[in-house]
UniProtKB/TrEMBL annotation:
<feature type="domain" description="DNA binding HTH">
    <location>
        <begin position="15"/>
        <end position="53"/>
    </location>
</feature>
<dbReference type="InterPro" id="IPR002197">
    <property type="entry name" value="HTH_Fis"/>
</dbReference>
<dbReference type="GO" id="GO:0043565">
    <property type="term" value="F:sequence-specific DNA binding"/>
</dbReference>
<dbReference type="InterPro" id="IPR009057">
    <property type="entry name" value="Homeodomain-like_sf"/>
</dbReference>
<dbReference type="Pfam" id="PF02954">
    <property type="entry name" value="HTH_8"/>
</dbReference>
<protein>
    <submittedName>
        <fullName>Regulatory protein, Fis family</fullName>
    </submittedName>
</protein>
């Protein structure tokens, strides 16, 4: 098989990279709603969560922020 010129070659992606891209795009299109993204992808919500965990994808909402004290300062020290 003849090699294509460099300008016509597409980047090679692994299956896990393609799966992660598809999941991330579906989540972003659905504002990170797991139920809606799973429906779009044709899988259950639980399957989507398992795949996200195995691919290391986390919702931006899942990022923990430092707790605020009642006086407006950060942290948990007294």
């Amino acid at each position: 098989m003849a090699k294509l010129p460099a300008r016509l070659r597409l980047p090679t992606l692994k299956l896990k990279e393609l799966e992660a891209m598809a999941i991330r795009l579906a989540l972003e299109r659905n504002f990170w709603s797991l139920a809606e993204a799973a429906e779009e992808l044709g899988i259950s919500r639980w399957a989507l969560m398992r795949r996200m965990r195995s691919l290391g994808l986390r919702s931006p909402r899942a990022v923990r922020r430092p707790s605020m004290k009642t006086d407006g300062t950060e942290g948990s020290e007294p």
